[in-house]
Amino acid sequence: MAEKHSCENCSMRKRYDKNPKSLLARIWHWHAGWCPGFKKYMTSLPDEQRIEMAKRYRLKKYAG
Nearest 10 degrees: CA dihedral of 17, 59, 9, 47? Predict the structure, then answer.
């Protein structure tokens, strides 16, 4: 089971889910690519869930 991270309830991520082309969504996507906290969150997820999220958010480095 993944540890509790604020990434699970991130308001910026929710904006991305609503409209991936918005400015704030694009900023979140850029941020997710290098954020150490998001990296820790993603690597704490079970493989299946991590791969699903990597595909949803087009984050190739977490897909494999």
Answer: 120
